[in-house]
Amino acid sequence: MSQSQNEERKAWFKGMRKLKFGIQSEMRSAFIAKVIKYDKKKHLADIQPLVNFSDGTEQAQLLDVPVAENCYIIDEILERFKPDYQATDTNSKIPAHDHSNFVPHYRKKPFMRAGVPVVAVILDRDNDNWSGGRSVDTFTPETNRLHDINDAVVIGVLGGDAING
C-alpha cells in the first residue's frame, strides 16, 4: 500500500471516529440529577442534571418529570401506617408489651424529596401524549423526537438510608 493510500485510510478512520463521537454525544440514555421540587400527589419532579456541558455550563432544569413508583411507594406505605404504629406505641393490649417502639425508629425524611440525587433515564420516543401514571394505553408520539432529555423519567433515588431517608 502506498504512503498516500495509508494516509487516506487513516484520515477516513479518524473521520469515522469523529462521526461516531458526534452521534453518540447527541444520544442520551441516563443521567444523575438533583431533585429541586417534588409533587408527591402527582408524582412529578423538577430536576437539575448534575453533569455540566463540556464547556462547564450547567444544563437546564427539567420540569414535571414523571417519577417511577419504586421511588416513592415505601414513603407512602410508611405514611399510611404511621397512625397505626403511633396507636400501637401507646395502647398495646399485651401486658408484657405495654408499649412498642415503632415510631422512634421511623425514617426522619421521605426517600423521595427535594435535594436528593436521582437517576433519570431518557425514553426512546416523545412521551408527551402518554397519559402517565399507571396508564398502559398505547399512544402516538406528538413529535419525531428521539432520545431527547425532555422525555426523561426518574427511576431511582441514590444514597440515603432507612433512618435518614
UniProtKB/TrEMBL annotation:
Name of this protein: PH domain-containing protein
Species of the source: Lactobacillus xujianguonis
PH domain ranges (all copies): 1-21
